[in-house]
Amino acid sequence: MGWAGAVLILVAYLLLSMERLTGQSALYQWMNVVGASGFVVNGWWHGALPSTSLNVVWLLIGALALWRIRIRRGSSTSAM
Fold it and tell me: Which of 13, 15, 25, 39 could make a disulfide contact with 5, Cβ separation 3.0–4.6 Å?
């Protein structure tokens, strides 16, 4: 889980850096949320509470961003 999470977060960052995705992209945020989830499981399993805590916050930031993206999309489709 930890390695999969690491790869997913790194690929997300690579795609962001190469301007293939934006920070407002749902795909980018999902990659971060799922990747952070892998780190949370791995950190908890190994008793690495600082890492687990950091990744819970990372996951929540991504979830908040996804919620805002969804709200923004919902309001743009209802305006049409």
Answer: 39
